[in-house]
Structure formats: structure tokens, C-alpha cells
Amino acid sequence: MQSLVRDDFSALGLAEYGVEIHIDDLSKEEIIEYIENENFNSLSYMKQDYFNFKKYINCEFAPKHMDYLNNDCAPDLLRFMNIKTKNKKNISYYNFLRGIEEENLPVFTDEQVAFINYLSSLLPLVRKHEYLIFECLFKGIVELKKIEEYLYENIVDCRKEEIDHALRFIYEKGFVSSEEDSLVLNVKVDDDLREYVFDLLSYGLTRYFVEFGNESGFKLWHSYRMDQVQTMFLKNPGYNQVGTYYYDNKVIIFSSLKKDASIEERLNYKDKFLEKNVFQWESMADVPESHVRMQINSECAYVFVRKMADENGIVLPFTYVGKGKMTNPRKQVKYDVKRKRDVITYLYDIVMENELPDYLQYDFGVMK
User: Fold this and answer.
1) Could you identify which of 88, 136, 240, 270 might form a hypothetical disulfide with 282, taking C-beta atoms 3.0 to 4.6 angstroms apart as the criterion?
2) Rounded mean pLDDT of 243-259?
3) What pLDDT does 93 receive?
4) 346 by DSSP, 3-state: which?
5) Are the C-beta atoms of 308 and 258 separated by less than 8 Å?
6) Rounded to an integer, what is the distance from CA 140 to the centroid of its chain?
């Protein structure tokens, strides 16, 4: 048996007591294989994490949203929201609690649950506008002029078009309507819903401040869903069916590196980091000539990357790796197996403004 004393074990202070950890190579391989194949996002793990946390904070009833921010050992609340219970994605913390059959929960109507799900679906926030609007409504501030003033006071460099965009898609969901110069909340509010929503709003706004402070715009190396990126560009958040968008003279690129694909598929896939600051990107097949011109003549590209589409049943967000310049365009003819014919794509080297940090290089497979 090969002797191994690992640094992380010695950090526990066991070495001074003569304690060593002995692991042979075969055992190490088995441990690594088990970890790689285990689904730590399964309901059983999430349920255990929840009850361990509840016990740790000595909470008689279900912990509040804010409890997950006020304790350093707390699990990430969003993981509870993103998994499925009873073959259905939770979306909200409330649905997770119902799914694990937590006791003494408030009873909400279907309409109230739908509203809670909507607010929860915005997490983690990439802007505060929607939550501040609902904070106003639950505080009894309903005049549109006063709501706008509240947003200007609480958002650095807040713009009127951002407020209009937020209101447009809030109206679209049907939970709020406009009546003369005021907003009307189309959800029955009782004491239980009021308490739940204030806790949820506090969580979202506090987490936003922790992650962004008073920054505006996209944050390097931060995670974003495609709908959140569309929101930041003041576009329709539901427009998320393709991987490339053109706004003014900018190209917005979403790329999954397919790290979970077969070796053969990965070899045929062109999207990858060539260097820490150079990302090779391949366009969609048979794009219109007008799109090719927009790519070549673009001012810059906003690049969002993820290693794979989903992991252990949870859809992964994209990491914003910054802006770059699209260079070295080259036309390619390749055989498309699904279409059973040759297609034309364009390959680019995007020279990024920022180098990929060390901790992301392994996940994104930077070539050495």
C-alpha cells in the first residue's frame, strides 16, 4: 500500500498527534470515480442539506430566505429552487418545502403560488427594478410617479427606459395592471403572503448588493441565464431560442463547450479557448450573409460560456467572460450529420479584453 499524507489532512492538525492518512492508488481512483458519478443535486442530498441547516440554526419552523444569507454555513438556497420534486422543477423555495413535506407551512392559493414562483424565477437578480417595484406595492406605494422616484433613489444611474422595460414585462405576467396613474396588484394579499414576499424581496435585494454592490452592467466571471442577459439589454427575456444575437453593432454570443459530449463530438466542435484571452467561435450553419457582415463589422462581441448545458439535472448558467474583438474570419464547409448535407459556417478568433482567470481555465479547457 502506498503511503500518502495529504496537505489538506495535515491542515486539520492531525500530524502532530502522529495521525497519517494512507490511501493506495486504486482506492484514490475509486473515490474520484464515485465523486464524479455522484449526483449531489439529487433530492436526497438537498433534503439532507436542508434539515442539517435547520437543525444547525435551531429553527423550529422552516428557515426564512434571509436565514440563508445570515449564516456562513448555509447551503445555497437557489439549489433548492432549481431541483425537481415529484418530477417538477420547484422554481420557488415554497415549492421545495412542500415537496419535502415540511410541516407548518402557510397555505397559499394557486394564484399566490404562481406569483411567488414568478418572483422566485427572477433570482439571482441581475437588476433591482422588478423587486423594488413590488416592494413599493407591498408597502402601499401605488402611484407610478412615486414608484419611479423610489427606483431613482435606490438604483445608481437608473434610466427611464429600464423602468419602462421592467413594467412592460411585469404587466405581461398579469400580476400587476395599470389604472390611471397607479399600479394595481392583481393578487390577493393576506398576512401570510405579505410576510413571505417581504422575506423573499429582502433576500433577493440583499443578495444582489452582496454580489454587485452599486455596480451596473455585466460583471466579469459572473453567472447569467440567457433570459437575464436579454433583460440587461432591455430585450424580451423570453427570446432565448438561439445562441447568437445582434444588437446595434454588438454580437451577443452564448456558447456551451460540450465538455460532457463524446470525444468524437468534442473534436468536431470548434468553440474553445485557444489561449487565456482568445476564444475560437464557430457561427451557426448557413447564416444569412447579412449576419456574416454584422459579425465581421461588429464593434465587439459579448461572450457568455458554459462548460456544458446541464449538470446532474440542473441547467447551468453561462459565465460572462467579457467583451472581445472578432478577428480572423474564415469560411468553412463541413458535413452536417443531422441535415445529411454540407453546410457553411464561419470561424472566428475572438480576442478578449480580459484573460480567463486561473480558476476557470480547467473548466473551460484552456489549451496549454
Assistant:
1) 270
2) 93
3) 98
4) strand
5) yes
6) 31
- DSSP label of 72: T
- DSSP secondary structure, 79-133, as one string: HHHHSEETTEE--SHHHHHHHTT-SSPPP--HHHHHHHHHHHHTPSPS-SHHHHH
Whether the bond into 124 is cis, omega within 30 of 0: yes
- DSSP state for residue 348 in the 8-state scheme: E
Nearest Cα neighbor of 257 from 277, 282, 239, 275 is 282
CA distance 261 to 32: 20
Percent of the chain whose predicted confidence (pLDDT) is above 70: 86
Nine-digit cell string for 38: 455522484
Average pLDDT, the chain: 89
Residues 6+ apart with CB under 8 A from 248: 299
Residue 313's region, left for phi above 0, alpha for psi from -120 to 50, else beta, is left
| Per-residue pLDDT band at 182 (split at 50, 70, 90) | very high
pLDDT of residue 226: 97
Say how far apart CA 45 and CA 24 lie, in whole Å. Answer: 28
Domains of the chain: 7-37 (no CATH), 46-212 (no CATH), 223-361 (2.30.280.20)
Give residue 266's pLDDT: 55
| C-alpha cell of residue 58 | 435551531
> What global pTM score does this model have?
0.86
Q: Which residues contact 4 (CB under 8 A, 6 or more apart)?
A: 21, 22, 23, 28
